[in-house]
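Feature request disguised as a bug: please show the residue count (114) next to SH3 domain-binding glutamic acid-rich-like protein in the output. Example input:
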Amino acid sequence: TLRRVCSASIKKQQQDVLGFLEANKIEFEEKDIAANEENRKWMRENVPEDSRPASGNPLPPRLFNDSRYLGDYEAFFEARENNAVYAFLGLTAPPGSKVDALLVSSLQSHSALF
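Example output, currently without the count:
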């Protein structure tokens, strides 16, 4: 059924985000909204109006840095594809990361122009 497909898609997206965070040793706190009404209410109240679906409630995964809303899975995926996840998460990229290498490369190419 459609509900089962949607649930499987949400689970895959959640695993994708968690896997990335764990692999990159980024500290996070996972909040289960399926089993905890308080977490579900908090998420619904803290997703900005312009980031909510036209009808119904916002679906997970949703990412926050403390109480600051960062975005949904699509925003996370786009940031990851553009090697901009640390900026998306509001974090500084660690030395030696792809983002750090891109920044150095970008700075080197800019310095060659001057």
